[in-house]
Design a protein that fits this description.
This protein has seven helices and 29 strands. It is α/β, with parallel strands linked by helices and about 425 residues long. A hairpin with a 2-residue loop joins strand 24 and strand 25. Helix 3 packs parallel to helix 6 and helix 4 packs across helix 5. The longest helix has 16 residues. It is elongated. Keywords: Magnesium, Metal-binding, Molybdenum, Molybdenum cofactor biosynthesis, Transferase.
C-alpha cells in the first residue's frame, strides 16, 4: 500500500501516466454493444473489417446516359456521336438489359449501370434528336462519371481500427456495412467531489474567506466533454471521517474519482492520507513537475483510479486536460497522431522552472496564419481559462520560447 513516503516525490507527467497505465488497461478490455444511432463520440473496442465491397454495384455519379465509351470517341458539338436510347433505369432498380454497340440507357445519379456500359455521359452533353435518338456532344473515357464496385471499400479490409472515436462520418461508414450495433468501450463513470472548509455551493452568498465552488462544475464539464458518465457529489469539509465515508461511496459507484482541493502539503492533507488507507496499491504519486498543477496526487484503490486535483481553477483544469482526459477519451492507448496547428508567438515565454509548463493562449487570425498570444494571470483565476482558446506546451528543461517563433497549440474549444 502507498504510504506517506510518497508525499511530494515530484514526478514528471510522463512518469505519472506510466504508473497509472497498468491499472487502466483493464478498463479498455471492457466491451458493450450499442445501437449505431447512439454511437457518436464512443470508442471502438476492435478493428472493423469491411463485410462487403462498397459500392456492391457500379453506380452513376451524374444524371445522364449509360453508354459504351468507345461509342462516343471522336464526338463533338459539330459532329455528335449517335446513340440509340433503349430505355431508362430508375433508382433502386437493377437494369435488365445489356448494352449493345451504339445503344444507351438514361439514368439518374446513383443509378446502377447495366452490363456492357463502362461510362456515363452527363445530361448536359446529350442532344435529343427525337424519339429514341440522342447525340453525344463530348466523348467520355472508360470509367468516367461512375463509381466502380469496391472503389470505396474492398471486402475484408480494415476500415476502422481499435480505439477509433466515432464521428458522424464513421457512423455513416458503419451504416453502409449494415452494422446496426457496434462494439464500444463502456463510458467511464466519474465521480467529482470538492473539498475544503472554505468552499460553498454556487447558490449561497459567500462570507469573508469563503468561495463558491468553481472546480466541481469545471471538472464535471470536462468529464462530460471527454465522453464520461459524470456525477457531481457536492462539497465535503476538511473532516477525515466524513471524507472517508463519501470517498468509500464514490469508489463503489465510479471508475474514476476526482477530488478538488486537499492536495497541498500540510496538516490537512487528508486526501493523500485516505488514498493510502482505503485500498491497494494506494497512493502512486504526490506532486507533478507541472506548471500549473504541481500539488496533484494520484492513486489506485482496488482497481479504481483516484486523483486529487489542485484547488486553483486553472490548475485543476490543466491537470484534468493533461492527465485525466487521456484516460477517459482513449488517447492514452491511441495517441493523437495528427499534427497540431501552429502559430507565431506574440511575446516571449519564460520557463526554466524545472517543470513542464502548459500556457493558456488566445489564437488571433493574422494574415494567412495565426498569432499565439499568452493569457497572463495566476492559476487561481478562472477567467484566464475562459479567455484561453488553446494551450501551448513548454517541455521540461526548456527555458522558454522567443517571440516570433512558431509554436504548436492544442485547442480548448
Amino acid at each position: 500500500m502507498g504510504s506517506s513516503s510518497e508525499l511530494f516525490k515530484v514526478q514528471t507527467l510522463a512518469e505519472a501516466i506510466d504508473s497509472l497505465k497498468p491499472y487502466v488497461l483493464s478498463f479498455y478490455q471492457r466491451v458493450e454493444k450499442i445501437p449505431l444511432a447512439e454511437s457518436l463520440g464512443r470508442i471502438l473496442t476492435q478493428d472493423i473489417p469491411a463485410t462487403c465491397a462498397l459500392p456492391h454495384f457500379r453506380k452513376s455519379t451524374m444524371d445522364g446516359m449509360a453508354v459504351r465509351a468507345a461509342d462516343t470517341f471522336g464526338a463533338s458539338e459539330s459532329m455528335p456521336a449517335l446513340i440509340e436510347c433503349c430505355g431508362e433505369i430508375r433508382m433502386g432498380e437493377a437494369p435488365s438489359k445489356t448494352l449493345e454497340q451504339g445503344t444507351g440507357l438514361l439514368m439518374p445519379t446513383g443509378g446502377m449501370l447495366p452490363e456492357g456500359a463502362d461510362a456515363v455521359v452527363m445530361v448536359e452533353r446529350l442532344e435529343h434528336f427525337g424519339e429514341t435518338l440522342y447525340g453525344v456532344t463530348k466523348a467520355v473515357a472508360p470509367g468516367e462519371n461512375l463509381i466502380d464496385i469496391g472503389e470505396d471499400l474492398v471486402e475484408g479490409e480494415i476500415i476502422l481500427s481499435e480505439f477509433t472515436r466515432i464521428r458522424a462520418q464513421e457512423m455513416g461508414l458503419l451504416a453502409s456495412l449494415g452494422l446496426a450495433y457496434v462494439p464500444v468501450l463502456p463510458r467511464f463513470h466519474v465521480g467529482i467531489l470538492s473539498t475544503g472548509d472554505e468552499i460553498i455551493p454556487p447558490e449561497q452568498e459567500p462570507l469573508p474567506g469563503q468561495s463558491r465552488d468553481i472546480n466541481g462544475y469545471t471538472l464535471l464539464g470536462q468529464a462530460l466533454a471527454s465522453g464520461a458518465d459524470a456525477r457531481y457529489y457536492g462539497i465535503v469539509k476538511d473532516n477525515l471521517e466524513e471524507l472517508r465515508k463519501v470517498l468509500a461511496q464514490m469508489l463503489k459507484e465510479n471508475d474514476v474519482v476526482l477530488l478538488s482541493g486537499g492536495s497541498s502539503v500540510g496538516l490537512r492533507d487528508l486526501s493523500a492520507q485516505l488514498i493510502g488507507e482505503l485500498g491497494e496499491p494506494g497512493l502512486l504519486f504526490h506532486g507533478l513537475a507541472l506548471k500549473p498543477g504541481k500539488p496533484t496526487i494520484g492513486g489506485v484503490v482496488d482497481g479504481k483510479l483516484i486523483f486529487g486535483l489542485p484547488g486553483h481553477p486553472a490548475s485543476a483544469m490543466v491537470v484534468f486536460d493533461t492527465l485525466v482526459r487521456p484516460l477517459l477519451d482513449g488517447s492514452l492507448l491511441n495517441p493523437q497522431v495528427d499534427p497540431l496547428p501552429k502559430g507565431a508567438l506574440s511575446q516571449n515565454l519564460y520557463s526554466g522552472s524545472g517543470r513542464e509548463e502548459f500556457v493558456r493562449v488566445r489564437i488571433i487570425p493574422k494574415g494567412e496564419g495565426w498569432q499565439v498570444e499568452p493569457v497572463r494571470g495566476k492559476s487561481g483565476l478562472i477567467r484566464t481559462m475562459v479567455l484561453a482558446d488553446a494551450i501551448v506546451h513548454i517541455p521540461l528543461d526548456t527555458e522558454g520560447i522567443e517571440a516570433g517563433k512558431e509554436v504548436s497549440f492544442r485547442l480548448l474549444r
